[in-house]
Predict the structure.
Amino acid sequence: MEEIVSKLILAMGFVELEKRFQTDDEDDLSCDQYFCTADQRQYYLIEQKVRDDHDSTKKRGQIENFRKKLLYLKAKHGESLTGIMYFLDPALHKNEGYYKKALVDLKDESGLPIFLFYNGELFQHLQGHMQIWDLLFNSLQVWRKTVPEQITLNYDLDSTLAVSEIEGVPGALWYKLISAETLWVNGVLQALFPSGETLRLLADKFRAAGTQTIKAGRSKITYQQLAEMLQIRLNQFYRQK
């Protein structure tokens, strides 16, 4: 999951930084996400977890761990640093009240902007890319029932099932994703579709839809044309079968 989020952040134009460091007290710390803007004017530290369902001891430990990293990096970046606690699963907000209060206290202590985000709120905050996130987590509710202890975003594990879950995504959104060069160049879509098999099946679905039209920016294209666009991406970024 960290890899998926990292690739999305890179695709949005941010620069990933070294995630491991040692404090003056010789604590060996590791960041889930640590990056900056291309001009190095703003830095972000993200404590990333899948679910907000931790017990009282673990949630206190997470805040203290986050605090150590935040204060260490503040010494390097000053007020250019933003701290974020981030949970991917939108369905679980068990400790939201606790984290909100703890982060307010940490904000007062550090003098830094600090946020608590769930699901796609992180990407809305960074650059307003909620649509991309909505697509990536289209299957979350279904998969939670079958893999309750782990969320996976490998859409090629069961290509037939994956297609049935994501084919309801509007064609206009698929057009945006297929057209987004940076998502391919930075490996975001390849991380979600490692073999490309689900995308090949999706291209077949588009071809079957034929001359039905979808919005493509200010104009319209057919699903057949969308299939051709996707096929070009498959030829560019996947080994041919």
